[in-house]
Design a protein that fits this description.
The protein is mainly alpha-helical. The N and C termini lie far apart (103 Å). A hairpin with a 5-residue loop joins β2 and β3. The protein folds into two domains: 95 residues, Tyrosine recombinase, N-terminal domain (DNA polymerase, domain 1), CATH 1.10.150; 133 residues, Intergrase catalytic core (hpI Integrase, Chain A). The chain is 54% helix and 4% strand. The radius of gyration is 25 Å and the shape is globular. The protein has a three-stranded antiparallel sheet. Belongs to the 'phage' integrase family.
């Protein structure tokens, strides 16, 4: 009788791949999203495939090998993708230095692309957010199963608390808490950075109306339950949330006022832009929006200042003065 042996793996684990697994396990204790951990592994694996000769240990990754690997990796990729991969490898080598596996971090010898700061993309039109909320708050009978309380909550959490898409999906019912007048929403932010965002009475009332409407639809609601659900009561997913926001824009007839490619992020940018217009400083914007860098928050203030200067320059009296000069 022929003995059957299990299939052998295509490649044996190397010291380097085992260290990558250890690095990701260490990162997991910070409670990043599954998407973030997957991005780390993808960045590390893809650059590793471009390293020649194929490295088996960190000692094989000299600055010259890394520079060549990144050059090949960057050939058909956007600067943002290359910069993210550089950051992943920098974090990996920082981990190896801390663990005493290597003496130093060679990533300083690998150039990192300079990224152009993205300009904020808020909704266009002074009263567009208010128009959007008013239209969506009314049940649209053309919808298969209208749920205005939920739709308004999604928009309000982005417009009045500046939440990202992933942060909205991660919210639990109990995330909104606090005494009257001191209500806050506890957010699991990007990169595993938690933050607490104060909410006004208006947004608090929107949350309460939504939770009550959900009880009517599905019965008991527990604080540990996901906050946002679909019309069947299942947790809302990324695609469903994106579709919901697009449909709200269509119903309100403001599609031409939404910057291309922004969608939900346009609501978050509107929140940040209005903070800057109302006098918030970069540090306050950074804390409220969960930015990792103060420079990102400063963008909103600089754009607002440019808009103010443009408004002054367009003033008819100023135009006359320029003509007289």
């Amino acid at each position: 009788m022929q003995q059957v042996t299990p299939d052998e793996p295509d490649t044996e684990p190397t010291e380097l791949t085992e260290l990558i697994d250890e690095f990701l396990a260490a990162r997991a204790t910070r409670k990043p999203s599954a998407h973030t951990l997957a991005a780390y592994r993808r960045d590390l694996d893809l650059v590793l495939r471009h390293a020649l000769p194929a490295p088996a240990s960190p000692a094989d990754l000299s600055p010259r090998v890394l520079r060549s690997a990144f050059a090949r990796f960057a050939a058909d990729r956007a600067p943002a993708s290359v910069a993210r991969a550089w950051s992943s490898w920098n974090a990996f080598f920082t981990f190896l230095v801390t663990e005493g596996v290597v003496a130093g971090n060679p990533m300083s010898a690998v150039d990192k692309p300079r990224l152009v700061a993205h300009s904020p993309k808020p909704l266009r039109g002074e009263d567009t957010p208010e128009q959007l909320l008013r239209v969506v708050s009314r049940a649209d009978e053309r919808q298969r199963d209208p749920w205005p309380e939920r739709d308004v909550l999604v928009l309000a959490l982005a417009l009045c608390a500046g939440l990202r898409l992933s942060e909205l999906l991660g919210l639990r019912v109990g995330a909104v808490s606090g005494r009257a007048g001191e209500r806050r929403v506890e957010v699991a932010g990007k990169g595993g950075r938690p933050r607490s965002v104060p909410i006004d009475d208006g947004l608090d009332a929107v949350v309460r109306r939504y939770v009550q409407s959900r009880r009517v639809r599905f019965g008991r609601v527990d604080g540990a339950d996901p906050l946002l659900v679909d019309r069947h009561g299942a947790p809302l997913r990324r695609g469903g949330l994106q579709y919901l926001v697009r449909s709200c824009f269509r119903r309100a007839g403001i599609g031409d006022r939404v910057p291309r490619g922004a969608q939900l992020h346009a609501l978050r940018h509107t929140f940040a832009t209005r903070l800057a217009e109302d006098g918030a400083n970069a540090s306050e914007i950074m804390r409220l929006l969960g930015h990792a860098s103060l420079a990102t928050s400063q963008n909103y203030i600089e754009v607002t200042a440019e808009q103010q200067r443009a408004a002054i320059q367009s003033n008819r009296t100023n135009r006359v003065l320029r003509e007289l000069g």
